[in-house]
Amino acid sequence: MHAQNRRFAIALLVASTFFMENLDATVIATSLPAMARDFGSAPAHLSVGVSAYLVALTVFIPISGWAADRFGARRIFSTAIIVFTLASLLCAASQSVASFTAARILQGIGGAMMVPVGRLVVMRETPKEGVVRAIAILTWPALVAPILGPPLGGWISTHWSWRWIFVLNLPLGAAALAAALALIQNGPAQRQRFDIVGFVLSGSGFGLFMGGIEAVSRTDVSRALSLGVLISGVALLALAMAWLRRATHPLFGLEPLSINTFRVTAIGGSLFRTAIGTAPFLLPLMFQLGFGYSAVRAGMLLLWLFAGNLAMKPWTTRIMNYFGFRNVLIGNGLLVAAGFAACALLSAGTSQWLIGGLLFFTGLTRSMQFTALNTIGFADIPQPKMRDATTLFSVLQQMNAGMGIAIGALALSIAEQWRGTVVGHALAGDFGLAFWMIAGLALLAVADSLLLPADAGHQVLAARTVGPASRRTSR
Questions:
Q1: Most buried residue among 99, 105, 158, 222 by CB atoms closer than 10 A?
Q2: Do domains 1-192 and 255-475 have the same CATH topology?
Q3: What is the predicted pLDDT for the residue at 325?
């Protein structure tokens, strides 16, 4: 197989496994009532299965880079697919909340290896001039899965059984494993000592931080307990950073954070991804609780957001090549914030076509911003630091996904208290105020991009560009 075609096939393979991992994080949300009936439990108790999966992902991602170098990327990636697929079978066969939660933890561990190791394989295989195309392929799962997950889970639970959500992973996993064995090369193993202290500090810190963020957004957890967990997580993460900076063989290095372009995707990008992550949570609730729409009607409206994501894909590379990263991140970032502000102005009487058009527009802008941030993050990373960069990026991306739902719930709770609404009975005005808060968060994310130089990341942009970006870099 030609080298370029092989790199393209690997990128598609990794994107497919990303899609499986992202989909399984959201697909069971609408299936919890059906699962609760089978388990003889309350639906609220099933939320532990969602949380356990996300926490396992976040805790075990930091060891993925070390494992890939120690045992070979092909071996770890293939093993991760096997673990994820077998865990899916155990999820489908679960007969209780406890067994389901244990299976979800195992599934999260498999996903934690698939995501960063897969990205590492792609970035090591891809020359600088191919980074834009590769990242465009890897970005779509994070955009599509959160939108398709809830309605797909609801449909499968209604017409088949919730167990089929996990059974369908079996043929997908088998196909992915066969492709991984055929396409990915193992590479030489590096005998580096495992950083136990770094793993314990970072894993515990990430786990407590994620748990604290979720607890703060819930009304059934005391504020003292939730803040205590959150503060403990932050403290452990601070200790982890101090350790990783001075360790001789750290679990992963922090040097990529000193690179300007990576810092933007780490700091401003985290704010943006968190803001975007609130949409799949707030929009369906606003349509159903605030506007009185049916679940089917709300789900159909969200398809406009999905359509916008897909429609932008053929244009992202051209737009980045023409305008350059800095202009795109600032200009499109402002459009993202404007889209959230426009959502705050919606009401039950707003035309369905207008709502659909707005969601299509926000889908376009968020797809553009995701791709630009993900691409510039790796533009200046040297190959020896690619492992650390992909590990850090994967951890941040996973944390942002979990934070998106928690921050959306927190913003809605603050809005309810501010407007005097009974907690848990949000009105349309509460959602409007929550979206104003999210618009402010998205606007804050743009500030980081203002510090970028005009030609930031220009080496991964196509030399054939004729727009503002090429005029700057040609000087």
A1: 105
A2: yes
A3: 85
